[in-house]
Amino acid sequence: MTVGIWVLGDQLNAAQSALAGVDPSTARVLLVESTSVLQRRAYHRQKLVLVWSAMRHFAEELRAAGWNVDHVESESFGAAVRDWIATAGISELRVMEPADRGFRQAIEALQLPVPLQWIPSNAFLWSREEFAAWAQGYKQLRLELFYREGRRRFGVLMEGEGKAAQPLGGQWNFDAENRKPPPKGLQGPNPLWFEPDATTQAVIAKLQRIDQQRAEAGLAPLPGDLEPFHWAVTRDQALAVLEHFIGTRLDGFGPYQDAMVSGEPTLWHALLSPYLNLGLLHPLEVIQRLEQAGLEQQVPLAGLEGVIRQILGWREYTHGLYHMFGTDYPALNHFAAEQPLPLSFEQLGGSGLNCLDSVFAELRSNGYAHHIQRLMVLANYGLIAGLNPQALTAWFHRMFIDGHDWVMQTNVIGMGLFADGGRLASKPYAASGNYIKRMSTYCKGCRYDVKQRTGPKACPFNSLYWDFLDRHAESLRRNPRMGLVMKQLEKLPEAELEQIREAAQQHRCQMVATVA
């Protein structure tokens, strides 16, 4: 009789807790590559290649380390696991607690013939219990408070010891220095990409067969470009991306991390989130390496603190909230938004808005867009246009290379769409075309005029923004952070406001017609 360890597709780390403390000679490891995931969601082609190729490479790495590993391709997780238990003589199954709540529920529903032991996850810095204990001390769970506690707890960018320790540089947050608009001709360094090896090429060929099968069955094609594929698929490659970021991008990360530039999809961004979310990198090793290298290279503290805050702060914070908020959270819809997603979202292009289509093109090419493109272009449009939160959250999960339930529920339902009514964010992150003009190059050459609120050439972001404020004025006035903009709304002449309403409604009708 043998101990079985089922490693899920986002747990690809040799130090993960289900493998820890087990003698490889007495255990068998299972990785299941199941096409059943496509029955629920049509994922971006590059996302599927990344996950499946990384799983295959990880299986080989475990074999090289002395583990008995079975990598199984199947149309069903349940059938694959039950068959494996029977043929391998498994007496007990160990699984590290999944990051996504739904995956645990699905595994428990399999009714496996052997005892199932859930091993607490070590993929994050804060356990769910530790996060919940921290949260009990606060009425409002704000990121800044959690981030400061994380800095103290892990001793990151701190001076002094114990309770007397203070943040390096005398302040916790340098965000104000990291929001510069892009100057003309701004270009970032080239990212580190990789050519597909034979293992990845085999996965690409598999996706080509799946595409053909879907076409023969009359199903819609999977979204996104299949090739060229250049993401890292092994731990060594992911570590190389980290070192490349440190060597070529960390020094310039800070000032323009919110900038959006046509033809520059990555700028100085680290491109580490896919590898952190799959387990190829552990957050603490990344944070400690960034701190060490940043201080040695005398990287500007604003940029160093900014990138560490995204991992030590935001990533851990949203994961903790995801599990604390519970099963009702994904269905929240504070503004009762029911607009269906336009066809341009599924086709990743064709909206007619240069900002949206620029981000769609980058997303179609490689499954990636950086955090401001996600929040202030895609989610902002969804918020002010009244797109259904559940549909948009599922779309983010399917399309992004780093998308998982725990990532997208809090980021889209909470931060992006304020569909939770303020449980995560302190205000709706709604913005007109002026923000996009200030922080991007997208407005240049667009068919719409960002200076106009009404009329046939007016930027839809403008009419949708003011219409959003008008439609939800009663609730928004109760938000202290919305006071200034609500006073601006009150100053608009009623005649202009009516034109704004009509323009916004016309745009929404066009969206519905496009979907139909």
Q: TL;DR?
A:
The chain has 516 residues and is an alpha/beta fold.
Description:
This protein folds into 3 domains: 2-119, 3-Layer(aba) Sandwich (Rossmann fold); 128-194 and 230-325, Serine Threonine Protein Phosphatase 5, Tetratricopeptide repeat (Alpha Horseshoe); 331-515, DNA Cyclobutane Dipyrimidine Photolyase, subunit A, domain 3, CATH 1.10.579. Helix content is 49%, strand content 7%. It is built from 21 helices and 7 strands. The longest helix is centred in the middle third of the chain and has 25 residues, at 301-325.
- CATH superfamily assignment of the largest domain? DNA Cyclobutane Dipyrimidine Photolyase, subunit A, domain 3
Reported CATH architecture of the largest domain: Orthogonal Bundle
Count of the separate structural domains: 3
Spatial strand order of the main sheet: 3-2-1-4-5
The low-confidence runs, each spanning 5 or more residues with pLDDT under 50, are none
CATH secondary-structure class of the largest domain: Mainly Alpha
User: What is the terminal-to-terminal distance?
Assistant: 57 Å
What is the fold named in CATH at topology level of the largest domain? DNA Cyclobutane Dipyrimidine Photolyase, subunit A, domain 3
